[in-house]
Write a structure and sequence with these properties.
By secondary structure, the protein is α+β, with helices and mostly antiparallel strands. The protein is built from 1 helix and 9 strands. It has one helix at 14-45, and strands spanning 49-54, 58-60, 65-72, 89-103, 106-119, 123-127, 131-134, 137-140, 144-149. The strands form 3 sheets. A 4-stranded antiparallel beta sheet has the order 1-3-5-4, covered by helices on one side. The protein has a 3-stranded mixed beta sheet with strand order 2-9-6, with no helix packed on it. A two-stranded antiparallel sheet has the order 7-8. The longest helix has 32 residues, at 14-45. It is elongated and about 100 Å long. It starts with 13 loop residues before the first helix and ends with a strand.
Length: 153
């Protein structure tokens, strides 16, 4: 004997409740997406900090020094960092990298640019502040003292 399977009749209002549930889920997803966009925008426009450092503060004329410039609150360089005059060094631009961290819902971003400095003469020097300009404002790093010794014999 073949049995026919029939669907149980639905309770009145079930379709309406299901539609409201789907709209509610879509609204929550849209709000979550909007929250992420706002957080990313806030991270992009947040506090700017420019830091610069070298891999060594004492070197010889035979050495090269890596100067790294880090800009927090950025996902990409707004423009090339403005290096101070460096007449005692030959400067070669290296690469750049960016980083985004999301920790407990807090987003932080930064970008780094690297420069290779080759000393031209021995002496004590100060690498002046590195600057960036964004939206009419100027941000700068602290100066860096460097000592260059004569070549080793």
């Amino acid at each position: 004997m073949a049995r026919s399977i029939t669907k149980a009749p639905r309770r009145p209002g079930t379709e309406r409740r299901r539609g409201i549930l789907h709209r509610g889920i879509r609204l929550l997803l849209a709000l979550a997406w909007l929250g992420l966009l706002v957080a990313a925008t806030a991270a992009e426009s947040g506090a700017q900090e420019v830091r610069a450092w070298v891999d060594k503060t004492e070197a010889t004329l035979e050495d090269q020094i890596f100067l790294t410039v880090s800009i927090s609150g950025q996902r990409r360089l707004p423009s090339d960092p403005i290096l101070p005059p460096l007449p005692d060094f030959s400067v070669t631009k290296g690469g750049s990298s960016s980083q985004t961290k999301i920790v407990n819902g807090s987003i932080s971003t930064s970008v780094e640019a690297t420069y290779l400095l080759t000393p031209r003469r021995a002496g004590s020097f100060t690498i002046g502040p590195v600057r960036i300009e964004k939206k009419g404002r100027t941000y700068q790093s602290q100066p860096i003292p460097v000592k260059i010794l004569p070549c080793r014999v």
